[in-house]
Amino acid sequence: MTVKTYRHTTVRDALRAVREDMGPDALVLATQMVAARGWRGWIGRREVQVTAASAADPNGRSTVPVGRPADTPMPRRADLPARAGLVARLLASGLDRAMAERVAASATSAQCRGASLPVLRRLLASQLDALAAGNEPYAKVEVFIGPPGVGKTTTIAKIAAQERASRGRTLGLVGADAFRAGAVEQLRTYASIIGAPFRVARTIEELDKALAAGRHSLLVDTAGRSPRDGGLRDLRRLLGSHRGVRTHLVLAADTSGGTARRILDAYQDVRPDRIVISKLDEAETIAPLLTAIADRGIPVSYLATGQRVPEDLDRATPAVLAGALLRDDEWGSAAAAS
Ligand SMILES: Nc1nc2c(ncn2[C@@H]2O[C@H](COP(=O)(O)OP(=O)(O)O)[C@@H](O)[C@H]2O)c(=O)[nH]1
Ligand SMILES: [Mg+2]
How far away, in angstroms, is 336 Cα from ligand 1 center? Predict the structure, then answer.
């Protein structure tokens, strides 16, 4: 088997070069974005590098794509180049190989040959059902935890303001920060703009009372707590004693797979039920983070796509997640179509 690499400015050009050089049965083994050669690389330009193998071994038998998951059906031989092209497009979007292969295996021959962005998004969305919490009803208490500065307070303000604007529904806000003086003021300001009931809970006992009170669902901001704080353990114990509590761990979209795993380990004691992915607008790809989240089997509840309150927040439906993975800028329309 001959293995070669090809570099071009677009995936389409790289695949055409592969086919012209190695024939229609060439298999794409890997697709990467790499720094362009020469001065274009110095000014930050990137290009696509495709690694391909000739499909036929010296005896003329065809080989199957490397890394094909064992549970995916064997593609028809005539489909192989088109399917490899689809896998290459998905890999170039930052998807990991196993997911790209699963999506390609679920596509018909015609979809493989001419998959438009909406078709790709639909195919990918159908693989993301288990990972997308979608439009679920509010729990009695929704608690937001996570590292400082990741977007917890802003996300809570977006949720409360969206509910108020779109459904006229009131959600109560609770600022539970025993550590940083003034940290709850940001949430208090949002609450008064939105017209939402607001309570401060500076101790675990005050939080206990706040969770029991009120007829509205509550969004609880836990700014300032880190996994090493005893406060987080107390928080876990308290949340465990209340019914109808859902805990969201907020993670920034550009978190690497390794860092995400470390944070998930650090917050393991609190047993987050959902993940909020924030700052999508600042990330090149969310694939490494999403892979780490998928490994833990925790569904994603929201995607935050910017600083604007309340616009820049979407429920994580399968279509919205797929759009974010494909870096399809129409998250909003993806959500509307789902
Ligand atoms: N670019 C971008 N900035 C965000 C997003 N969400 C929050 N921020 C900003 O991140 C900073 C920290 O947000 P904050 O909600 O205070 O984080 P917290 O410490 O986790 O409560 C603020 O400047 C926010 O405006 C987002 O989705 N995209
Ligand atoms: Mg905060």
Answer: 25
CA atoms within 13 A on the CB side of 328: 23
Lookup result for tokens 């707590």: 225
Entry pTM:
0.77
Ligand 2 centroid to residue 215 C-alpha, Å: 24
Region 250-278: what's the mean pLDDT?
95
Q: CATH code for 133-316?
A: 3.40.50.300
Could you state, in order of their start, the residue ranges of all structural domains in the chain?
Answer: 3-115, 133-316
What pLDDT, on the 0 to 100 scale, is given for residue 55?
Answer: 52
Distance 224 CA to ligand 2 centre (A): 7
Q: Answer yes or no: is the C-beta of 223 below 6 A from any ligand 1 atom.
A: yes
Using a 6 Å cutoff on CB, does residue 244 contact ligand 1?
A: no
pLDDT > 70 fraction of the chain, expressed in percent and rounded:
83
Q: What is the pLDDT of residues 14-48, one digit of tens each?
A: 888 888 888 877 777 777 777 777 666 666 677 88
- Which residue minimizes the CA distance to atom 1 of ligand 1? 306
In short, whether 152's Cβ falls inside 6 Å of ligand 1 is: yes
